[in-house]
Amino acid sequence: MTITPEVPAPASAAALSFRTVDLRGRDLTLAGLRAAVPRAQHQTVADAEQKVLDIIGAVRTRGFAALNELALKFDGVQQEHPRVPAEALANALVELDPAVRSALEESISRARRFADGQRPRNIDVELGDGALVSQNWVPVARVGLYVPGGLAVYPSSVIMNVVPALAAGVESIALASPPQKDFNGLPHPTILAAAALLGIDEVYAIGGAQAIAAFAYGVEATDAGPALEPVDVVTGPGNIFVATAKRLVKGVVGIDSEAGTTEIAILADSSAQPALVAADLISQAEHDPQAASVLITDSEDLAAAVRVELERQSAGTKHSARVREALAGPQSGVVLVEDVEQGIAACDAYAAEHLEIMTADAPAVAARIRNAGAIFVGDYSPVSLGDYCAGSNHVLPTSGTAAFSSGLNVTTFLRAIQVVNYSKAALQEVSGHIVSLSGAEDLPAHGEAVTARFQQDS
Questions:
Q1: Range scoring the smallest mean pLDDT among 25-29, 68-72, 132-136
Q2: Which ranges of 317-339 does DSSP label H, i.e. alpha helix?
Q3: Residue 196 contacts by C-beta under 8 Å, 6 or more apart in sequence?
Q4: Whole-number percent of the chain with pLDDT over 70
Q5: Using an 8 Å Cβ cutoff, are 314 and 289 in contact?
Q6: Which of 2, 20, 251, 369 shows a CA-CA span of 20 to 30 A to 235?
Q7: Which residues make Cβ contacts (< 8 Å) with residue 398, sequence separation at least 6?
Q8: Strand runs labelled E in 147-232
Q9: How far is residue 360's CA from residue 209's CA, in Å, rounded to a whole number?
Q10: Residues annotated as catalytic (active site), given as ranges
């Protein structure tokens, strides 16, 4: 495999390590492009798998006792039962900052309008007289929604998980978020307030892989509190352990995707504004030291100007150390391409969770992208808009999985059920074909099940 050449950063930006990968003059296959673009080199699912298997096994066999032990081990919280009391939800909403409440309400309103428009329609197809095949979209009965804790607070993720489930018509919704030592073992009060705003009253102070296990398999009631009933679908982002747990329970329950640490790619040409490009790269680097921030451009001048802006802006932002660590990681950097055409190919190979297009004729360029969780077009559609108030969903596939999976949406919580309704005459019309095909497959009883319906007529 060809090793991607590393280009040293300019001396003026030496204080901030933000590497460059140069793809110019190279005719790379899709596999070559995927190997060349920056990727995180952190703990893999295989590394986490045994730890997660142990957690799942403990929750399945020892229920709430195991959950209490894990809360103490990982969160430093002593629990008797993880169910959040109704009064805690009500109090969190009463005490919520009015400005934050207003912002959450606006985000909910926009997300609802978009989600309501996503629901697919039922269809009936008449294939002949008396031959009707239908497809009906039916919501799952119960879902478990995970909202991470950690370095930041994510009430917006409450909205992104709950709103499409409600729009789909799900009747039973449970939400889990890690217990917080600073809040008497409950999830962060802003998360509780967001749940209360949306009418979700089944909330649990459970974090990590153990939350996914509890949702997938359920937990029996104890003297300390009621059962946690198993769900049909688990959604929500999280760290490598949450992603691994979702992979391991897939098949027991449905999942949205194995969403991991956030990432942004920006396809930009010489027309882009360096200060805006840098601001958007920093906005995602702020999430986590492992966050990925990638600039794909055919302009060396833009790349140099963005480096200067990254140095300036990252020094002044609140989480400067976290941002600079993320920008310096192997998952971040500049990808220099020959032209926008090669830039589009690099974007499709990278399959970013968030992809911004800052080029001339950005809408036309965006329309050519095949692989991305969400695409943000032009100077006034930053990822931050999608994180909070665009109306779109910010629970999106990461680590290249956008090449084959979608972001969270209404259909995540729906199943397409096919209904077949044939009359006697309609079945008789195709009976000969069924007999022929069943014979060809050496499954003659299939054909006999059809001919049996007409023997009384002969």
A1: 25-29
A2: 320-328
A3: 89, 90, 92, 93
A4: 95
A5: no
A6: 369
A7: 257, 258, 259, 260, 261, 262, 263, 353, 373
A8: 172-177, 203-205
A9: 44
A10: 353-354
Ramachandran sector of residue 89 (left: φ over 0; alpha: ψ -120 to 50; beta: rest)? alpha
Q: And the tokens for 24?
A: 């110019």
How far from the centroid of its chain's Cα atoms is residue 437's Cα? 42
Length of the chain: 458
Q: Does the pLDDT at position 246 exceed 90?
A: yes
Q: What whole-number distance in Å separates Cα of residue 72 and Cα of residue 74?
A: 6
Where are the strands (E) in 5-130, listed by range? 6-7, 20-22, 123-128
- What's CA 333's distance to the chain center, in Å? 23
Question: For the chain, what percentages of helix, strand and coil (3-state, to nearest 5) are there?
Answer: 45, 15, 35
Write the CB contacts of 419 (distance below 8 Å, at least 6 apart in sequence).
133, 134, 135, 136
Mean pLDDT of 202-229: 96
Distance set, CA 260 to CA 26, 88, 129, 186, 239 (Å): 31, 30, 51, 24, 6
Residue 374 host element (H or E)? strand 374-377
Residue with tokens 């702020």: 286
CA–CA separation, 420 vs 134, rounded Å? 7
- CA 321/CA 83 separation, integer angstroms: 36
Q: Provide the sign of the torsion angle of the four alpha carbons 234, 236, 241, 246, taken in this order.
A: positive
Q: Which residues contact 99 (CB under 8 A, 6 or more apart)?
A: none
Q: Where are the alpha helices (DSSP H) in 351-443?
A: 362-367, 383-388, 424-440
Mean pLDDT of the chain: 93
Which tokens sit at 447? 């054909």
Asked if the model's pLDDT at residue 8 lies above 70, the reply is no
Quick check: 332 and 285 in contact, CB under 8 A?
A: yes
φ, ψ of residue 357 to 5 degrees: the values are: -115, 110
Identity (one letter) of the amino acid at 197?
L
